[in-house]
Amino acid sequence: MTPRSIALILGLLTLCNPARADELIVVGTGDGVEMLQAVAQRFRAAEPTIEVKIPPSIGSGGGIAAVGSGTAKLARVARVLTDAERARGLIYVPVAKIACAFFVHPSAGVAQLSGEQLTGIYAGRISNWKDVGGADQRIRVVRREEADSTLTTLRATMPGWRELEITERSKTATSTQEAVETVRLTEGTIGFGPYSRVLDIGTQVLKIDGLHPLDPRYSSSGEVAYVYKEGALTPAAEKFIAFTRIPDASSVIREFGAVPIAP
């Protein structure tokens, strides 16, 4: 989806259902969406006159485009801003550090992989779970688009992933939610995405080289952040950002397996 088409869709939604003065719609990435929805719910208890909505993903780029065009006042992103975006007056506020997790359908019969086994699976060299100690079942690989924030982080931080050519015999999920649901519903599948404790429902989160994504020594993690345009932040957005920094919100973030980032 191009930035122009995203802007057109957001514009139509705004015309059909304009945000109220006491409503804040935070658009953007699917990374950490359940976590931020929980933070928004806790915020509503503290600020009952302000309703914060965290709608389904339109991607980090979509959120940045919405804030840049003035269609949205606050976005959620899973990548840092480019120099060009910062030059347009966009401000980046990190919220939480989230590990990049690999997860499988329980039918795979594995709970951990070595880094070498993992790259073998994603390269297509290993095609049956029995070859890595699991069930006698074909491996179905779920990947993300090259611009995806988790894949970008994996290529930068996970050993063996920088030049990895992912097998053509894979399904491309266009959102974190699609990747998770595909693995939950399809036997033999493996996927990756930002870690959240909700992954423990219906999937098996893998240890890689003996380390769970919650282990401080785990090699791959990225950030979820807010983005807004300088001078355009509303009082509701200011209050929500400030709330995200306090211990009450930090406890929610930790409940989802992420690490709050101090200001």
- How far do the termini sit from each other? 33 Å
**Uncertain residue segments:** 6-16
* Helix-strand makeup class: alpha/beta
Rg estimate, integer Å: 19 Å
Task: For this entry, give a set of tags.
ten-stranded mixed sheet; elongated; 263 residues; two-stranded parallel sheet; 12 strands
What is this structure, in a nutshell?
The chain is built from 9 helices and 12 strands.
Descriptive notes:
The chain is α/β, with parallel strands linked by helices and 263 residues long. 35% of the residues lie in helices and 23% in strands. It has nine helices and twelve strands. It has helices at residues 3-16, 33-46, 59-69, 83-87, 115-123, 149-157, 176-185, 235-244, 247-255, and strands spanning 23-28, 51-53, 74-77, 90-104, 112-113, 140-144, 170-173, 189-194, 204-205, 207-208, 221-229, 259-260. Strands 1, 2, 3, 4, 6, 7, 8, 9, 11 and 12 form a ten-stranded mixed beta sheet that branches. A two-stranded parallel sheet has the order 5-10. Strand 1, helix 2 (33-46) and strand 2 form a beta-alpha-beta unit. Helix 1 (3-16) crosses helix 3 and helix 2 runs antiparallel to helix 9 (247-255). The longest helix has 14 residues, at 3-16. It is elongated. The two termini are 33 Å apart. Residues 6-16 have low confidence and may be disordered.
Please write out the topology:
Elements: H1 3-16, E1 23-28, H2 33-46, E2 51-53, H3 59-69, E3 74-77, H4 83-87, E4 90-104, E5 112-113, H5 115-123, E6 140-144, H6 149-157, E7 170-173, H7 176-185, E8 189-194, E9 204-205, E10 207-208, E11 221-229, H8 235-244, H9 247-255, E12 259-260
Parallel strand pairs: 1-2, 1-3, 5-10, 6-7, 6-8
Antiparallel strand pairs: 3-11, 4-8, 4-9, 4-11, 4-12
Helix pairs in contact: 1-3, 2-9
